[in-house]
Amino acid sequence: MLVSGERVYSMHLVVLGLNHKTSPLWLRERLSFCAEAVRKARQHLRQLPHIRESMILTTCNRVEFYCSCDSADQGLRSLEQFIREMDVDISEYHDCFYRRTEGEAVAHLFRVISGVDSMVMGETQIINQVKEAFCGAKEQGTIGEFMEHLVHAALEVGKRVRRETGISEGPLNIGSVAVDMARDFFGTLKDRSALVVGAGEMSMLTAKSLAGNGISTITVANRTVDKAREIAHRLGGQAVNYEDFQNQLQSVDIVISSTAAPHPIIKRSMVEKIMEHRQGRLLFIIDLAMPRDVEPEVAEVPGVRLHNIDGLEQAAESATHERTRFLAEVSRIIEEEVGRFAPSPAPQPQPKKLSLLH
What is the pTM of this model? Predict the structure, then answer.
């Protein structure tokens, strides 16, 4: 039984997912979705047996399926079959996936939206990502009354956690951690130039952090050049057409790529040609995209330092170490809120023992 306000729901909640803590980057890539693929996946999920509602949360660090079902066990089996149809042998990678049901599933979503399950603990970007997942599911009609109440409850939990604790103090996010790594590599960002490829929220956060760390020049490249201009204008940078980003690689010191491209856009052969004309100048590349924007083999090119999203984990842990002192308080809030949404079943009265004495 799950409860929201005065409403009691008889369906069962399940979560099947994987994240940066449980699975390698290449496996998350196999399950990553572009916007159109998410729509198709939601449509497919609603047709599976035993599943009533569904929402897909996909970010650079996680892919999660939230579903209300007639039966938790049957719902998880349907989800696992869906994963197999994506050419992922879930039995082979069983331990890379986590499975949550009922109150544990509610607690998982509350932890996710609170930021304590993120690579950068306490980051706030996850709030918008959950909202986008919810709005997409609602627009498509794959989410109903129960999961709508669940997501609204989760959003309120996220607000309460950040209001009552310091888990999100400071401007830390994946973009700022990436910029910190670039600064550590060069010693200073003064007189350095950067190219940001992509114009989504991650690119905006990264470009903002670059500007705040004294970068000399920021260039933004995006398929929609107006969006690139918008970001560049806010930060005093310049925008270029997406097709021109390769030319920019010859002159910049730092490249941070975060597009929604389904395949790598920066390849080894491209970078090898570029490095021939850089006269020994080092090139620092951080790939924040999922799936990856940069071929892994680029790391083998002399003079290039490449980091992908998983390469930021150690730096993120170090940057957010101070936030761990708020974990106990966050856990208390989440436990309290889960108790409201998914109360434990009342103990059943024990049958009276029959006396054998007459």
Answer: 0.87
